[in-house]
Design brief:
The structure is a single chain. With 187 residues, this protein is mainly beta. Helix content is 8%, strand content 45%. The chain has a ten-stranded antiparallel sheet with strand order 4-3-2-1-10-9-8-7-6-5. The protein has a two-stranded antiparallel ribbon with strand order 11-12. A hairpin with a 4-residue loop joins strand 3 and strand 4. It starts with 20 loop residues before the first strand and ends with a strand.
Length: 187
């Protein structure tokens, strides 16, 4: 499918989640990105590196956009996503700038995936690989806002590529939970 700005906001504004905060990737709870990276043609060494990176995100959200700073030990990246269906430029997994379009989906926007009653922000971007490849990220809050799920997949020629889905789970952190760059969990 082509990227489209149709139905930018499909859920009632009072049910739209606010992703603002600091987040750390829970690698143990997250699925591997290796199948997606392989399907995109990324070399083995780079795939291994990317799939094991400790990722932190700082997110600021207002009515019209989400600003995300992604920090890893290799590099930092910043991008914005329009919440009004306007195209923005983001960096692909391959490192090139590509167009992305985000829209809300959920209970009032046609129902969640798998029958779940969750409002999510779905971002579709040119994967930067083969023509027609689209990288899809569906973001939603879970566990009462303590977890941010990023469900990612690769589509080719309008259909999901078999075996190229992954759920990446980030946990909300506060400054008191971070020591020397590591997330400290309690309990």
């Amino acid at each position: 499918r082509e990227l489209s700005a149709d139905a930018a906001v499909g859920a009632a504004s009072d049910s739209i989640p606010n992703f603002s905060g600091e987040w750390a990737m829970d690698l143990k709870a997250s699925d591997s990105l290796l199948p997606i990276l392989s399907a995109l043609g990324m070399n083995l060494v780079l795939r291994q590196l990317v799939s094991r990176l400790k990722v932190k995100q700082q997110i600021k959200q207002d009515e019209s956009e989400i600003n995300v700073v992604v920090k890893t030990s290799v590099k930092n990246d910043a991008f914005s996503l329009s919440l009004e269906g306007k195209p923005t430029m983001v960096t692909s997994l391959g490192g090139t700038l590509t167009e992305a379009i985000s829209r809300w989906e959920g209970p009032k926007g046609g129902g969640g995936a798998g029958g779940e009653d969750v409002v999510r922000l779905v971002t579709r971007q040119d994967a930067g690989g083969k023509p027609g490849d689209v990288f899809v990220t569906s973001r939603s809050l879970r566990d009462g806002g303590a977890s941010l799920w990023e469900e990612v997949s690769l589509e080719r020629a309008g259909a999901e590529v078999p075996g190229t889905t992954a759920r990446r789970i980030l946990r909300r952190i506060s400054p008191s939970q971070v020591e020397g760059g590591e997330v400290v969990t309690t309990g």
